[in-house]
Amino acid sequence: MGFFRMKFSHVEVQHLVRAWIVISLAFAILQNRGFALTPKFLVAATISAVTVGVGFLLHELMHKYFAQKYGCRAEFRAFDFMLLLAFVMSFFGFVFAAPGGVFIQGNVNAARNGRISAAGPMTNVVLAALFIGLKLLAGAAFPSQLLLSVASYGASINAWLAVFNMLPFMGLDGSKVLFWNIKAYAVLLSLSLGMMVLTFVV
C-alpha cells in the first residue's frame, strides 16, 4: 500500500487538523513568549506549523501507514485534554507535547508493533537531518534569516521529538521498540541522540 493511498475517516481528519493547529499555536506562543496577533507572532506560528506541526503530523501518519500496511485498522485521535494542557502551559514557558495517538485494531504481534512504533521516531530523525541540510544551505548557498530560523527550529524540535518518543516508558514508542528488539532500540536511540547533538554543532 502506497503512502498516499492511506484511508482516512472524516472524524480522523478533524482530529489531525485540530491537533496540528493547537500544537503549532502552543509552540508559537512558547517562541513568542505570549499570544498577540502581531506580524512577529504570525511568523512564529508559521514556523511552528512547518516544523513542529509537520514533525508531529508525519510521525503519526507513519504509525498509521505501517499499521494499515499490516492490514490493521488505524486511526488518529486527538487527546483534547492534553492539547488544552499544552496550550495553557505554553504561556508559562513550557510545552508537554502529547497531542494524540494512532489507535490500532488488528493482528499486531510484538515485531509488528515494534516496527509500527519505530516508524514515528525514525521519521523525526529523517526530518531533523533534512532540516540540518536546509540549515547548511541557508547559511551558504541561499543566505536567508527566515530560512535559517525555520531550519534551526525544525532540526532541534524533530531531534527532540525523536529522543522523547524513544524513552523506554510505558505508552511511548521506545518501550514498544525495546520490547520487540533491543538492538533496533539501541540503533534508533543512538540515531536520535546523535541527531540532537548535531543540532548543537551545526
The side-by-side strand order for the widest beta sheet comes to 1-2
Shape: globular
> How many structurally independent domains?
2
Low-confidence stretches: none
Number of strands: 2
What's the N-to-C terminus distance? 37 Å
From the alpha-carbon coordinates, what is the Rg to the nearest angstrom? 17 Å
Percent of residues in beta strands: 5-15%
Please, could you describe this protein's structure?
There is one protein chain. The protein has about 200 residues and is mainly alpha-helical. The protein is built from seven helices and two strands; from the N terminus they run H-H-E-H-E-H-H-H-H. It folds into two domains: about 5-110, no CATH class; about 110-200. It has helices at about 10-30, 40-70, 80-90, 110-140, 145-165, 175-180, 180-200, and strands at about 75-80, 100-105. Strands 1-2 form a two-stranded antiparallel ribbon. Helix 4 (about 110-140) crosses helix 6 and helix 5 runs antiparallel to helix 7 (about 180-200). It is globular.
Summarize the structure.
The protein is 71% helix and 6% strand. The chain has 202 residues and is mainly alpha-helical.
Keywords:
single chain; 202 residues; mainly alpha; 2 domains; two-stranded antiparallel ribbon; 6% strand; globular
List the helices and strands and how they pair.
Blueprint: H1 10-32, H2 39-69, E1 73-78, H3 80-90, E2 100-105, H4 110-139, H5 145-165, H6 173-180, H7 182-201
Antiparallel strand pairs: 1-2
Helix pairs in contact: 1-2, 1-3, 2-4, 2-5, 4-5, 4-6, 4-7, 5-7, 6-7
